[in-house]
Design brief:
Distance between the termini: 25 Å
CATH topology: hypothetical protein yedk fold
CATH superfamily: SOS response associated peptidase-like
Number of domains: 1
Strand order of the largest sheet: 2-1-7-8-13
Shape: globular
CATH class: Alpha Beta
CATH architecture: Alpha-Beta Complex
Structural class: mainly beta
């Protein structure tokens, strides 16, 4: 799964990675992004008149038909293998896809003989920002003036590097997949499913960090310092 991630890169570095995307403001560095917080998203809402841009969506997908928005607390991740089947995700999979901007994420690894798991920080060897594959939805009641836009991160089986850490990893999309994933046209699952593959191990790195990151309120560079 993916339950915490980072976006601590300079705004200029994000702009270089997503060079054709409008960034409406300077991005504050985030070292411990947690579920239910707002996350930087590039949704498939662009057109010739409306260029792609970074927006901020609630992390935890709330389906349009939901009675209670708290359902989003259980939908921070979506399994790639069942997107076309699950009622919570199948409509968004066809029509409402997004990129979730990140530059690293955390996973917790079991340690033999210890009660507490060891947090592991995972990123690209280049340390550059990247895009997580996501889905988004709009939820609104009659009493609300503004709708809630929410998102979920898609996960897949781990690559060779990460399977020793956890049995799932988030889908990191290569740059040449962005255009297809962000297409505003409805696409069949057969066309999208090949994109949802484990990212190459040789381009990634993982290292242990302090349990300081366990507390969501801790959001500072200390979160990603290697733990010796």
């Amino acid at each position: 799964m993916c339950g915490r991630f980072t976006l601590a890169s300079e705004t200029e570095a994000v702009a270089q990675t997503f060079f054709d995307v409008e960034i409406p403001m300077r991005l504050a560095p985030r070292y411990n992004i947690s579920p239910t917080q707002d996350v930087a998203v590039i949704a498939n809402t662009s057109s010739d008149e409306l260029p792609a841009k970074i927006e901020f969506f609630h992390w935890g997908l709330i389906p349009s038909w939901a009675k209670d928005p708290k359902i989003g607390n259980r939908m921070i991740n979506a399994r790639s293998e069942t997107l076309a089947e699950k009622p919570s995700f199948r409509a968004a999979y066809k029509r409402r896809r997004c990129l979730i901007v990140a530059d690293g994420y955390y996973e917790w690894q079991k340690v033999p003989g210890e009660r507490l798991k060891q947090p592991i920080y995972i990123r690209l060897q280049s340390e550059k920002p990247f895009a997580l594959a996501g889905l988004w939805e709009v939820w609104q009641t009659d009493e609300m003036e503004e709708p809630v836009r929410s998102c979920t991160i898609i996960t897949c089986a781990p690559n060779a590097l990460l399977k020793q850490v956890h049995h799932r990893m988030p889908v990191i999309l290569p740059a040449d997949a962005y255009a297809q994933w962000l297409s505003s046209e409805e696409q069949p699952a057969e066309a999208l499913q090949p994109l949802l593959a484990p990212y190459p191990s040789e381009e990634m790195e993982a290292y242990p960090v302090s349990r300081f990151v366990n507390r969501p309120m801790n959001d500072s560079p200390e979160c990603i310092v290697p733990y010796v």
